[in-house]
Amino acid sequence: MFADRAKIYVRSGKGGDGHVSFRREKYVPNGGPDGGDGGHGGDVIFVVDEGLNTLIDFRHIRKYKAEDGEEGGKKNCRGKNGNDIIIKVPAGTVIKEAESGKVITDMSGENTRVVLLKGGRGGNGNQHYATSTMQAPKYAQPGQPAQELELLLELKMIADVGLVGFPNVGKSTFLSRVTNARPKIANYHFTTLNPNLGVVDLEGTSGFVIADIPGLIEGASEGVGLGHEFLRHIERTKVIIHIVDAAGTEGRDPQADIYAINKELEAYNPELAKRPQVIAANKIDAIYDPESTVLDDLRAEFEPQGIKVFPISAVSGQGVKELLYHVNDMLQEIGEETTVFAQEYFPEMNMGYSDEPYTVVYDEEEDEYVVEGPRIEKMLGYTNLESEKGFTFFQNFLKENGILDELEALGIQEGDTVRMYGLSFDYYK
Fold this sequence. Notes:
Blueprint: E1 5-11, E2 44-48, E3 63-65, E4 85-89, E5 93-97, E6 103-107, E7 113-117, E8 148-155, E9 161-164, H1 171-178, E10 196-200, E11 208-212, H2 227-231, E12 239-245, H3 254-268, H4 270-273, E13 277-282, H5 294-302, E14 308-311, H6 320-334, E15 359-363, E16 368-372, H7 374-382, H8 388-400, H9 403-409, E17 417-420, E18 423-426
Parallel strand pairs: 1-3, 2-4, 9-11, 9-12, 12-13, 13-14, 16-17
Antiparallel strand pairs: 1-8, 2-7, 5-6, 5-8, 10-11, 15-16, 17-18
C-alpha cells in the first residue's frame, strides 16, 4: 500500500528539576548547598532515510516522545540528559503544523536532518543561588517544560518529470515502456490509484525520474475525485508531459484536454502551470484517417506558446525516444536544484513565553549589557541558534519584543557585548 499522508503527535523531553540539598558530612555540620542541576530533555529530530519511500509506518505508530531529563541529585550530581527521539522519513516529506497547515520544514535537497523541537533545559540546583547574604538557599529552578505539536506529514515525491493526462490516454502504457515501473493498467477512470515512479535510462545521458500522476478530471484542484491527493506529487517536477489521445478513441478533444488540465494545475498551484511543458500526442498508430489534421492542429495551437508536440505510440514505441531526449535537454537547461518548500511556521514562536518578564541592564564592572529573565531563558532554551533559521528567529524575537530598543536607549554601540545566560553576542545594527 502506498501511503503519502500521516498525522502524528510529537513531544520533546521535559528538563529535569534542579535539586535542593546541603552538605551533611562528619565534621561539616553546616555545609553549603550542593543540589545538582537537572538534565536536559531530549530533542525531537527528523532525519531522511533513503531506504524509505512511503509514510506507511506512521499509520501504526502515531505518538513520538523524547525522554525527559532526570532531576539533579545530592553532592552536585547533575541529572542525566533525556534521550533524543529520531524519526525517520523518506526524502521529499514536508512536515506541517497540523492545525494551520503551514510548513515547518521540507526534508528535501540538502535538508536531511532537522531538530524540530528542542527539549527543555534542566533547572539549576540550589548551589547556584548561594550569595553572601543567602548562604543556604532552599529553592532550586524547575526544568523547562516539554514542547508538543500535532504534525501533518505529506510525501511529495521528488521526480524530475510529471506525466499528466485524462484517464485512458496511455500514461501507464507510456511509463511501462520507458522505465522499469510496472503500473497496473485497466480501462476505467482513475485506474492508477497510486503515483508510479520510474527511472528513464537514456544512452549518453544520466537519465531522469518520471512520475505517472493518476488521471485527472475537471475539478481535481477542488478535491473532486482524488485530485488533491495526487496533484501534490507534481509540485516538485521540473517538466510536465501532457499525454493526449491523438486518435480520439474515446471521443476526447486533445486540445480541450490540455487546456482543462492546465486550468486544474493553475487552480491548485499557479506555479505549476508555469513549468516547462511538452505534449505527447499518443496513439498515432490508431489514427486511420489519412486526412486527419489533429497533429497539425495541435502544433498550430501550442508550438507558438513554446510547447513542442511529439507524435508517439506508447504501444509500438514510435517517436518515444525523440520525446525523451528532448525532455532530457529541457532538464539540462533547468539544472539540478530541487524545489524546496519554504518554512512558514516556527515552533519557537508558539511556546507561550511572550508574557514572561525580562530585564535589560548595563554591567559597568564587566562592560557588558545583560539581558535576563524567564522570557529570555525560555526562548534560548527552545531555539537552535546553530541553524540559520533559528538565529533569524532569535534576531526577530529581540526586535519584536522591544529588547533592541531598550539596549539602544541604554547607549549600546556597534561592537559592544550583550550577555544572555552564559551566551555572549557582539551587537551590530
